[in-house]
Amino acid sequence: MDLGLENKFNTEVKYLSGGQRQSLSLLMATLKKPDLLLLDEHTAALDPKTSKLIMDKTRELIKTYSITTMMISHNLRDAINYTDRIIMLDKGKVVLDIRNGEITEKELVDIFNTKNYDSYIDEAV
Questions:
Q1: 58-76, pLDDT tens digit by residue?
Q2: In the chain, at which end, N or C, are there fewer CB atoms within 10 A of the end residue's CB?
Q3: Which InterPro entries match (predicted)?
Q4: 3-class SS at 99?
Q5: Rounded distance, CA 84 to CA 43, Å?
């Protein structure tokens, strides 16, 4: 899989961009093909273009190696575009547990009280 790191082999991690660091972290996390991959806001500090690139790479690795993944994200677009199941917690309690596709964009927007699904949940609170 091309993670865009081929020409960075001798580069110290501190000199890598945020996206390159996330790519490296993703590669390291999946190197031994784990049964479970936990991702906690793994694109939160990235610009939208790099975030999409990392999410696409993440999906490719997950599918290639059949890795069960739990992704924590406040980004509704990521929840809609990159998951099979959406579970929403409020104060530690499950308030929504659905298979992706069982809910419309409008229903999600209403649940999160936001203007569109590109918004982050934090902005809606």
A1: 899 889 999 999 999 888 7
A2: C
A3: ABC_transporter-like_ATP-bd (IPR003439), ABC_transporter_ATP-bind (IPR050166), P-loop_NTPase (IPR027417)
A4: strand
A5: 18
